[in-house]
Amino acid sequence: MRLMSAGSAKVAPSPVHHPLFARFYARCSVDAERRLGLAAVRERLLAGLSGRVIEIGAGNGLNFARYPAAVAEVVAVEPEPLLRRLALDAAQRAQVPVDVVPGAAEALPVKSEAYDAAVLSLVLCSVRDVARALAEVRRVLRPGGEVRFLEHGRGGGRMMTMTQRTLDRTVWPVLFGGCHVAREPVAELRGAGFELGPYRRLLLPEQGPKLPTSYGVLGVAWRPREPEPR
Ligand SMILES: C[S@@+](CC[C@H](N)C(=O)[O-])C[C@H]1O[C@@H](n2cnc3c(N)ncnc32)[C@H](O)[C@@H]1O
Hints:
The protein is of the alpha/beta class. The chain has a single domain (19-222), classed as 3-Layer(aba) Sandwich (Rossmann fold). Helix content is 31%, strand content 23%. The protein is built from seven helices and seven strands, in the order ααββαββαβαααββ. The protein has a seven-stranded mixed β-sheet, sandwiched between helices. It is globular. It binds S-adenosylmethionine. S-adenosylmethionine (SAM) binds next to helix 1.
């Protein structure tokens, strides 16, 4: 039976409340699956996963239908109330059990070392405190557990990175639900103590004009295994 904690239970007021952005994202993200080629990228993000998975900032649940059957359970944390409701709908259509729960990346409402994998998909741009969020991801993964990430961040030439920094200091986070365009997800993961596996830079979309959000990265990182006792 599938657990759905967010539907009827009373929850504390959400730490993330972006109703306008949530409506915008709910509409645009579905279109972006085709227009930006995101559907295929999500397939690659999730391919080969198995066991217990936690997805951070799951949005409207666009990844859910793409989890491989070898995944035993997904706990999908989403703080924004409207997106969480849409995620609950998407969870019903998934081929694996998906439990949608309220909560924020900076204080994940789950036990330590309980997950084989964590999925970060277009979310490090939006969390308030990246270092804290990644420390939480590290806490909830078992030693050797993997992080699958699809993120966007700093990229392009000098003009583009200057534009990205300016946008981050001014209108972008206000207009787009706390999103930042000049963050550096790979450096943040390394700084949080993850071992970086293979990753590749990609443009979203691959063809056409470059936007401040176009500089993507798709890859794997691991929580290091504990050192062998001497
Ligand atoms: C650009 S959307 C991406 C949604 C989804 N992961 C996807 O791939 O389509 C960013 C998501 O991060 C969520 N978010 C924002 N702040 C967060 C936080 N502190 N902790 C967890 N999620 C957060 C937003 O509510 C939103 O669902």
